[in-house]
């Protein structure tokens, strides 16, 4: 593996999950692996879980960590080739990526979708520019279209909590006041397609995800139908893909309630967080024993640690 | 000790002071105690001394440190139970505290008073919410009503500099252009009540501190009378408590001057810093040999280090 | 050496360059030198290279690092003696510098020129105030008039790439949309004066640098003439010194092009970065094999590491 930009970087997903669970048993077992190695984390957007869990993961491996909020602490970057830089942007990605690569051994980047220009978002301009011009491995800490550290943590969590060989996993859209990206949903769907699960996607009409990702999967537009006998309910809001970045509905009838959860097979509730209570999911569900959102967030550390450990492999003799 | 939220967490104050002074002699004597342990510092407000001294204290103990400015780097938090989160706040404290607890071993938090709503400030919403939902020890890096790391450093400093068994310690209000919280004054008064000192409080009428803290202490409204024969003058501005958060006076006659210091028993000047020169205290006093504000700030490291060391105790075998 | 404020702190420049190149061969050879030592980096301005390379340099030496963005994370500082601090500034440099000195072993500071008041910029108020009131060594991470870490990296880079005993080095002004400081150009000129090079400075009339720095050097106002047979072309924009801080020209004819580079002796292109492409230097030049701007940025780590190593010397037994 050269980079961890998408879950396609994972060769044997079940083996990865097993390795991550091994790391969780003793997070410091490889603490000399990262000695003299530095992770540089560049944030173009806010972050809580990713910021802290990735940092913790690196430290567990004995790495040094440098964290930089690009917008406020550095220079505005230009990503277009051939542009005449006579306005606000002070540095080109060509220099920035090549230079930063010299100060660290692994580079982790968060750069959200604009939600205004689908083509540009799908081109993954920031992430792919770093990939192109950096000389060290890149880790995606959520890009315009993918959040593969989250998806790996999700798969680990489902493995930990599943009670049947092939659980029913429902990905349910839920209402939100703001337009949100598709990254988490995209990576979750791709990850579930690699797992032995019965994946059902439910959302209002108009909220169909990128068909290149959902492929031939049919959508269950009736949320209650979808929830029936579910072992896991994975909740997430996203904006429209077709009507790119638009909020078509804030219909509260799509909020996740205890009543709906009772349709499931004592199903576990998952969400990547942050979650808006009583808008996306009601208190009673988040506060119930079936919510595993905190355990899911905990697995972010071990997902990141496994990815960093694998990328450090290139530096081993 | 489960948390360090207030100085009531201190069991034997004189023993703590002695231990802190022992740490000061050789700050690295416990440098293996914090190995594999992580301190996460969350700031909801600016900080210089607390930010750097607490970080240094943790590193002296061999800990890893993660620093996060919550406002700019993360998500806006909701603290109210049962609220419908359909506006600006993206994450509830319930999730944030539980999640962050999983990425660290000790959580330190700075969250100032609003000074607009006394009841809310006294409820210590931020600090107590973290206490309620976090699963690791919490350290108060200045909350709405208390600054116990500062008060411990103050007590250490007085022990170092006192020349008599029972020194006279004057807490003097001084003018300031802005409305300031009561946290430092509160914790100082509580700490002095535990010490063998003659504590005298002086301030203009209307600036009485919370009577639940000052208890039956009388106030000396004549500053010059208060200063007579003082061994220590502890200077601090605060806004009105009764007329909550209001600036009732900027009377320059209350500024600390050399002339007033000459009324003391060659008294030492203390201030928690930052201090506005020639507004709160005149240059001549701050620049005199009797100012110990820099030494006092130095003790912040050892106060924090002792608190962290004690909290790390729970992880020892 | 007590501080590293300017390149005048360097005693034997060639020996420093040799030592830095030795560090580059094995950056971790002194990794126990900085154990229990802390570098505190204070930024009053944005930074990418300096932020990351200096941090990396310190970690290579085994030091702990604390990074603080003064403006957003701390208090606004007052630098004037005797001022009445009744407005926005909460803390005086006297306290800030003395206090921070107690939490670290070396203090590094970035504080750019105002470009509005030449006298004040030349007084180096921020840097010199820290020097005056701090009790630990100070490292200049670019001040109003000097960038000595950059100049040391520049000298290292020229030593690495030069093919003749006494190369011709051209410092060329180039156009830029904004008014930029003189710090980089100043330190580069001073550094070249210490080297066995033929230094030629070229810029439009009105852009003469501080004569106290350029001394009796004549200026070549014809850029193409200047470029003839150059072994190195060092590109930098700066605002007018005489007409202090003003942009007198954005003349695109001064942009660095391949055509101009062909006048050189297969000359290497240098720039401190960030660089605005197709405004300061055209793509073809930056993307050519003769551009060594990335290698130059890499040497920032070893320049900083050497400076820190020398300053740590004071703590050795």
TrEMBL record, chains A, B, C:
It holds the Pfam family OTCace. Residues 3-160 form the Aspartate/ornithine carbamoyltransferase carbamoyl-P binding domain. One of its GO terms (molecular function) is N-acetylornithine carbamoyltransferase activity. Gene3D superfamilies: Aspartate/ornithine carbamoyltransferase. Carbamoyl phosphate binds at residues 47-50, 75, 110, 147-150, 272-273, 300. Its EC number is 2.1.3.11. InterPro entries: ArgF'-like, Asp/Orn_carbamoyltranf_P-bd, Asp/Orn_carbamoylTrfase, Asp/Orn_carbamoylTrfase_sf, Asp_carbamoyltransf_Asp/Orn-bd. Residues 184-308 form the Aspartate/ornithine carbamoyltransferase Asp/Orn-binding domain. It catalyses: N(2)-succinyl-L-ornithine + carbamoyl phosphate = N(2)-succinyl-L-citrulline + phosphate + H(+). Pathway: Amino-acid biosynthesis; L-arginine biosynthesis. Keywords: Amino-acid biosynthesis, Arginine biosynthesis, Transferase. N(2)-succinyl-L-ornithine binds at residues 142, 176, 236, 276. NCBIfam families: PRK04523.1. Homotrimer. Belongs to the aspartate/ornithine carbamoyltransferase superfamily. SOTCase family. Catalyzes the transfer of the carbamoyl group from carbamoyl phosphate to the delta-amino group of N(2)-succinyl-L-ornithine to produce N(2)-succinyl-L-citrulline. Is essential for arginine biosynthesis. PANTHER family: ORNITHINE CARBAMOYLTRANSFERASE, MITOCHONDRIAL, ORNITHINE TRANSCARBAMYLASE, MITOCHONDRIAL. This is N-succinylornithine carbamoyltransferase. It comes from Sungkyunkwania multivorans.
């Amino acid at each position: 593996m050269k980079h961890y930009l998408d879950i396609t970087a994972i060769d044997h997903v079940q083996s990865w999950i097993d390795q991550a669970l091994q790391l969780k048993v003793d997070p410091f077992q490889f603490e000399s692996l990262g000695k003299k190695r530095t992770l540089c984390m560049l944030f173009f957007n806010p972050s809580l879980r990713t910021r802290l869990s990735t940092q913790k993961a690196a430290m567990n491996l004995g790495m040094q960590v440098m964290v930089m909020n690009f917008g406020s602490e550095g220079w505005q970057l230009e990503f277009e080739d051939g542009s005449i830089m006579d306005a606000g942007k002070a540095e080109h990605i060509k220099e920035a990526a090549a230079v930063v690569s010299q100060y660290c051994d692994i580079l982790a980047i968060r750069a959200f979708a604009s939600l205004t220009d689908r083509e540009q978002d799908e081109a993954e301009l920031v992430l792919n520019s770093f990939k192109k011009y950096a000389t060290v491995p890149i880790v995606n800490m959520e890009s315009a279209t993918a959040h593969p550290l989250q998806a790996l943590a999700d798969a680990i969590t489902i493995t930990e909590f599943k009670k049947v060989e092939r659980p029913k996993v429902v990905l349910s859209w839920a209402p939100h006041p703001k337009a949100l990206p598709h990254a988490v949903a995209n990576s979750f769907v791709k990850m579930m397609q690699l797992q032995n699960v019965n994946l059902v996607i439910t959302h209002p009409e108009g909220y169909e995800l990128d068909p290149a990702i959902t492929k031939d999967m049919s959508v269950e537009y009736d949320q209650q139908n979808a929830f029936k006998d579910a072992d896991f309910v994975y909740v997430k809001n996203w904006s429209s893909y077709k009507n790119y970045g638009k909020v078509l509905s804030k219909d509260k009838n799509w909020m996740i309630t205890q009543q709906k959860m009772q349709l499931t097979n004592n199903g576990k509730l998952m969400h990547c967080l942050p979650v808006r209570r009583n808008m996306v999911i009601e208190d009673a569900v988040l506060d119930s024993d079936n919510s595993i959102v905190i355990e899911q967030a905990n697995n972010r550390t071990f997902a990141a640690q496994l990815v960093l450990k694998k990328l450090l492999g290139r530096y081993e003799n």
